[in-house]
Automatic annotation (TrEMBL):
Residues 23-71, 83-123 are annotated as: Disordered. Residues 1-18 form the signal peptide. This is Cytochrome C oxidase, cbb3-type, subunit III. The lineage of its organism: Bacteria, Bacillati, Bacillota, Bacilli, Bacillales. InterPro entries: Cyt_c-like_dom, Cyt_c-like_dom_sf, Cytochrome_c550/c551-like. Residues 60-137 form the Cytochrome c domain. Residues 23-62 have a biased composition (Acidic residues).
Length: 137
């Protein structure tokens, strides 16, 4: 038993020794310097992209409050998986004919396993349009 244990231990040490990288320490300094240079360039590009994205988001926020919101498209994209293709219920309840307040509360609070949607995901004006879409069904 002792011989088997010693053989196993020696084999384990040899495997660990073979897995080590003794020479890589000298190269890591160069890699770190190259990575730092790359990060600086990437950070500058990201800053420019972030500024452009912020400008686009502000423009999108201004246009989001206009009447270009498609309640049916939003509902088909976000609601059909649980409420069915015709919104009459599946895993989630029937949404057709519900009053607007019920829809608004459900979208903002996310009852049960339903996800909630905040003002950044759907504006109050667009939520009113969506609630009207369901209440008129």
């Amino acid at each position: 038993m002792k011989k088997f244990f010693m053989f196993f231990l020696l084999s384990f040490v040899l495997v660990l020794g073979a897995c080590g990288n003794g020479d890589d320490d000298a190269d890591t300094t160069d890699d770190v310097e190259e990575d730092a240079d790359t990060e600086e360039v990437v950070d500058e590009e990201e800053a420019t992209e972030d500024e452009e994205a912020t400008d686009e988001e502000e423009e999108a926020d201004d246009s989001a409050s206009t009447s270009d919101f498609d309640a049916e498209e939003f509902a088909r994209t976000n609601c059909t998986a649980c409420h069915g293709q015709d919104f009459t219920g599946a895993m989630g309840p029937d949404l057709t004919g519900l009053d607007e307040g019920t829809i608004t509360d459900a979208v903002r609070e996310g009852p049960g396993s339903m996800p909630s949607y905040n003002e950044n995901q759907i504006s109050d004006e667009d939520l009113d349009v969506l609630a009207g879409f369901f209440s008129e069904m």
